[in-house]
Amino acid sequence: MDSPSCRFTFDVPFPSPLIASDLLSGQYLDIEAIPSLPELDSLEPADTASGHRDTVGAGSPHRVQIQTDGLHNSNEKPAVTSSGTISQKRKRQRSKIACRPCHNRRVRCDAASEGVPCSNCRRSHASECVFIDSKRTRGTQGRFVRHASDPRLVLAQSSSVDRGSSSSHDSNGHLLLDNTSDHIISDLLDRSPDTPQAFQFTSVEQPCPPLESGQIVFVGEASPLTWLARNQVPDKAFHRPIVGRHVSGVEEHSTALSATADSVSHMNSLQSLLLDAFCARFLPLYPIIAGTKLLHDWSRGTIPPLLKYSVLFIGALHTAAEAFEQLGAYSKADALDAIYYKAKQIYDSDTEADRICLIQSMFMLQFRFGSEPCYKNSLWWSSNAVSLAQTVGLHRSTRHVALPLEDKRLWKKIWWVLFIRDRQISSGTGKPMMIDERDCDVEDLTTEDFVDGESVETAYFTISLVQIARIINEVVRYKYSPAASVNPLREDIKANIHCTLQTWQAELTPIMRYCTISNRNRFALILGLVYNQTLLLLHRPSLADAKKPPSQRDFTTALAFHAAGRISDYAKEILQYFTVNEFPIYAGMIVYSAMALHSAESVPSEDEGERNQQQRRSEIYNSCVLEFENMYQILRMYKLYFGKTVDIGKS
């Protein structure tokens, strides 16, 4: 146990639900250290002077160029006969780009040059090797255009006009959008990390747009954005339309991206930097790879290509953008896209036979949060990693399986990391939990399983996360599942979960307790974030109750705000003593969830001292969430789902 002088102020155990007066008296909360926030600030960056944001300057020598092949021209006008009637020319056949199997797998097709069947279909014995039709035409200036009525392109025409984008209309009055200005189309989602930004998150009274069956995503009750949107949408409106471009796939940019990825992998200094970032910042938090074997295979050049590029992708994700600039290499945005698509290309080629390697790679690729609403997104990778792990049998005991001991240890660690991540996703986005412990009999992790290069901190950290993930399971099951709406959470069950959570916190080993004097380490800080996030989920009030002044809040609402206040304190610690690339992505989302709760405090306090505290808290939230977004750019994905109902605007 820590001595009282060493204990961090907001790590004092929460009071029992039966003793509300202790909390309300203020003895558990350092008010001076916890400013408040009247409005939730979002991550919509400020516009540049040109009216749009581009992650890489147009003149950048390292900008990835997306190549397009113009095989036909749509500028030809119909011939006019002597009688004044227009004789329509026969419509030219659309250009052929790739066969359908290659297009569906997103791999390069040589059918146009070599004939059908293409080499990929011959190797895979595909039954049908037929061309697909290109959906593009050329505009009046010879550039590729797309009709605004294209169902794959969802864009309000007025937004293009308001932003000053160049547009034209065809003879039928359709708005033509220039492909060279696609960054204007995706202005809502692109961002410039170099632009000074300030944020404001406000609710807008807009009806939910009509849903298309193929363009829907589910965001459940646990998501803080679902909670915020409750006063704009019906109580059960969890199916969200995807806002943005509905592009079925990337057709012709694989050559440029592959060249960039290959250049990155052959730059020894950059490759070493990314590998070091992976081993120092990601692997200790997610021990899904045996570190000693990874370094051994890497040095010998025997690491599988899919695993190699997945590791490089994570390393690039956890590396500051300035590091790329100092090496004179590609920008971070270009490198991330190139390495990700290279790994995806290898995965789609179906050449990797090692299923453990596939699970490890899919787990890492889930941390790519792109601005395009592709179906093969973060949740696709994570769910398929779980599915393949269950196919292999990682969820079952290997006690009687003839595997080397090191492989048994690795299997256990992979499975329990998948379990932890499954609960993180469910509690953060409201997705159903994919793993049911009733189907599993794999042994619990012990410190003896962490002897393959892992630190003691990693061992205790992972074991503690497994324990609290089981508690999160109960919170989500009893409060945020469909059954919870039929059978509301009983107060005795809620109190039992609360006490179980307090017991977990009290039994943490000393090195896993954050202390501002003697134990300021990121593992303990992350556990503190997860602990308070779970308390916030358990006691999160309705939006109407959250808007009540502090003097009118009931005990459970006060507990939720108490947990959010401690999360803001941890955010302050991150800003002062750490860098955000040392933390996992979900740490930023925890800060964001506390930010969402405090956004309900829309009326500033009448007391001047409390108003100053609210302002300081606002600054902490702004700075911390912005740092996480600059590093990981995760909120772009959420803006696809909530951009219409919960407006993310600029202050």
What does this structure look like?
Among the domains are: 54-70 and 137-186, no CATH class; 96-133. Strand 7 (167-169) and strand 8 form a beta hairpin. The strands form five sheets. Strands 5-6-8-7 form a four-stranded antiparallel beta sheet. It is built from 25 helices and twelve strands. The protein is mainly α and 651 residues long. It comes from Aspergillus brasiliensis (strain CBS 101740 / IMI 381727 / IBT 21946). Residues 98-131 form the Zn(2)-C6 fungal-type domain. Keywords: DNA-binding, Metal-binding, Nucleus, Transcription, Transcription regulation, Zinc. Residues 68-95 are annotated as: Disordered.
Summarize the entry for a quick read.
The chain has 651 residues and is mainly α.
Strand coverage percent? 5-15%
Task: Give the neighbour order of strands across the main sheet.
Answer: 5-6-8-7
What is the helical fraction, as a range of percent?
40-55%
* Largest sheet features: 4 strands, antiparallel
Secondary structure tally, helices: 25
Secondary structural class: mainly alpha
Query: What sort of overall outline do the alpha carbons produce when their principal axes are compared?
Result: globular
Low-confidence stretches: 1-95, 140-207, 211-216, 244-256, 644-651
Mean pLDDT: 72
